[in-house]
Amino acid sequence: MYLDTLLRGAIKQRFFIIPLLFVSLLVMHKDKPVLYIIGDSTVRNSNRPQAGWGEMMGEMLDTSQISISNQAMAGRSTRTFVKEKRWDKVLSTLKAGDFVIMQFGHNEGSRPDTSRAGYRGVLRGLGEDTVNLVWKDSTVETVHTYGWYLRKFVRDARAKGATPIICSMIPRNQFVDGKVKRANNDFGKWASEVAASEGAYFIDLNAITADKYDVMGPEEVKKFFPGDHTHTNVDGARVNAASVTEGIKQLKELPLKKYIKETK
User: Fold this and answer.
1) Once rounded to an integer, what is the mean pLDDT over residues 162-166?
2) SS3 214
3) In angstroms, rounded to a whole number, what is the distance separating the alpha carbons of residues 98 and 110?
4) CA dist., res. 251 & res. 245, Å (int)
5) Which one of 117, 201, 210, 246 is most buried, by most CB atoms within 10 A?
6) φ and ψ at residue 163, rounded to 5 degrees
7) Nearest-5° angle of CA 153, CA 154, CA 157?
8) 231 pLDDT band (50/70/90 cuts)?
């Protein structure tokens, strides 16, 4: 009789503990912050041997403590990322305590119009200038400046309680007089200025990686670019992911830095 009572008690305790542990795990998963990454094919690229640096961030961060959602898409600009509602998709799950890293600039250069070439283009600079495009189905699209779209990402993320981080675009494999060409006169400069005006975190990814390329030299850097001067392979993507991580470390007040893996 005594043993029977003990046995029944142990069974009840076991069936109480198991669901309690399950609920605890659900709560822990729900509270786990997410790093959302948005950008273009230099950030996520399924066309191997090309690879984007966002795909390598799982090697840099402790994914037992933070999740990574790489929402970058090849061929997209700030404009088309909004137009195609990819940003709306991010916002639908973005929550307080999450992070958003953004890197655009490679696909923004064309003049915006309704041609195939102009589909991705934005107005240059930071201002509130706009141009209205009328498409074949009579819909009207208002196109803004590069700075306007970055400000939208920053402000929308903050409205959700998330932390926005702007990156300048990775450098291309373009050398002039032995030094890699930098983006500090246009898109990199504008990215920095938007971050400053909005009080957002900024990682000068262009400069951090360009400094490395200058040391490596053209022949070594060429090994990272298997098909063109823009898209890196896996090794090149790791270099850029490491540069992003260095940039995170440099931002002393950025909570994301506590999720960086410790190197032995």
Assistant:
1) 98
2) helix
3) 33
4) 10
5) 210
6) -105, 115
7) 80
8) very high
